[in-house]
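Example record

The entry below shows one chain as it appears in the dataset: sequence first, then structure tokens.
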Amino acid sequence: MFLQNGAGMIEDANTFLWPDPHVRPNYVTGVISHGITLNRPFDITHTGPAATSVGPVPREDGDTAQPLSRLLDILPLAHRLKCQAYSWPTILQVQLEKLACNALSNPICALEDAVTAYILSIPETNMRLMQEISSVILALPELQGVEGVKERFSAKSLHHTVMDIIQKNRATTVSMVWDMRNRRETEIRYINGYWARRGREVGVRTPLNDELVERVQEMTADKLRGAGS
């Protein structure tokens, strides 16, 4: 099961762990919107109940094993998780919405060492990034022909969705800020790096995502060098 801030980890797992699709395990992917605080490794405080959305990742051979179907039936029975299972096209869209939000809040707040509310002070950057991401999403081959995608992921609609999330979480400190403060590697490759990579695949330019990846990687390298000196 892959529950992460970014996207692209499954592709890495396929490449480095299970390159043979015939022996590859079944995957479940998902999004958690619960509020949590990491006090220290393996010590987490549940600060705000919300939802967990999960769904199966399609196999190359088109065969979803029965145990995976049972897992998706059982998870919603854990009421504390507030879990809902969805089909692949639906869970993919939920994941892309969260990834768009993370691509805005994480790198910019990390570069500014700021809480999420900082995003509200840069409306032109917000809209520019959402336009880039919208263009990538609407060109993704896996979403072609899926009903409602054009409306849900238009630049205007995506901007509205993401800014609503930002507004509700304005007082939070995103994970990439904590990574920077603690001189840890960030997930930038799986957040803005994902949009940049998918943009190249579908022929959509992503200069702002490219710039954010570069700046975060440079700052991370500087902090890691400083930690080792």
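Notes for this example: The chain has nine helices and six strands. The longest strand covers residues 35-40.
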